[in-house]
Amino acid sequence: xxxxxxxxxxxxxxxxxxxxxxxxxxxxxxxxxxxxxxxxxxxxxxxxxxxxxxxxxxxxxxxxxxxxxxxxxxxxxxxxxxxxxxxxxxxxxxxxxxxxxxxxxxxxxxxxxxxxxxxxxxxxxxxxxxxxxxxxxxxxxxxxxxxxxxxxxxxxxxxxxxxxxxxxxxxxxxxxxxxxxxxxxxxxxxxxxxxxxxxxxxxxxxxxxxxxxxxxxxxxxxxxxxxxxxxxxxxxxxxxxxxxxxxxxxxxxxxxxxxxxxxxxxxxxxxxxxxxxxxxxxxxxxxxxxxxxxxxxxxxxxxxxxxxxxxxxxxxxxxxxxxxxxxxxxxxxxxxxxxxxxxxxxxxxxxxxxxxxxxxxxxxxxxxxxxxxxxxxxxxxxxxxxxxxxxxxxxxxxxxxxxxxxxxxxxxxxxxxxxxxxxxxxxxxxx
Length: 431
Ligand code: AMP
Ligand code: GLY
Hints:
The chain is an alpha+beta fold and about 425 residues long. The protein is built from 14 helices and 23 strands.
């Protein structure tokens, strides 16, 4: 029997999920709500926003959708999976008590403490004066984090006390993030290479995916402000199999065991942001969903049947012990609009996407794109496209991805030129 799928969300991650499930032999109709202009070429767009939980469940019921896959965190934290399961609908994504791992950084710290998971030391505050007093003691650098969801803007890596103080004031006095910043964490600053480890979880079964590395800063050489992610690659050559197993065990399995002890079932993605410090791997944060742009480099390499895995997890059934991957790497370069990340520019005409997609090994995923009245493809957000490419080596994957980027143009376009560069250098040293 074929399965009709609804993907919830409208970014590059959701485009990659649509592309992934469409490769499965068992796929039926594919819908995406609300999707974007690029996704509209691969799936039927449904004009329902990702935060309209009831509207989405009504649609899934009416269309007899066999599997709903939730992309973004906000609907998960708001309880979309609970609404769907309550109505007997099959959904990939944790219930709101599992999604709290991302919805509250203080909760995630508490779970990590109980489970003995290494993480940065932190203290939580709700009033400015005590936070300020603690800051005087701890000094800088220090990391200031809004407890709740702040659309990726709630973290300040403060190199001075003044920067940290400004971030504290924004959260606790000016209420920049509303209730999401009512509690603030002051966290120990950690140094080391960052890593994203995503795992598919089906209650007691854990299927870790290949490691990926995300580039958070806007400019080459990790300069400039943080963004949602300017590019990514997978796998990560510096993470040898024993280290990978160690991280999967301490970051993912221990967390799931701790949730199980608390009676919380988790069916979805558990994504650990990890930093490889000199004293071993430490968990920076959890997300309860696929990463963006991680998904755009994981799915092109995946050989296992994505739909089968997502369905098994959504039903709480056994998962395979490991996924199958193409042997070569994938490199994904994000193209962002002018002004990003402080602002973004909309309505700029995009050219060259088809030519780029026609290159060998290249797939272009749409994040913020739309059609204007003339039917032209235009920018509609900060991150616009991810140009992903697989290859036999990092050198080949990077060459292909950047050839794709070179064929695409729009006013104000920005992209990093060093995505995957470290991995390519490591590869060249080894060979
Ligand atoms: P998060 O949303 O918690 O992943 O934080 C966003 C980014 O801020 C991370 O990807 C890191 O680059 C940086 N960051 C967060 N926490 C720390 C920390 N304790 N030490 C150093 N950098 C951090
Ligand atoms: N790549 C960062 C995120 O998905 O949160």
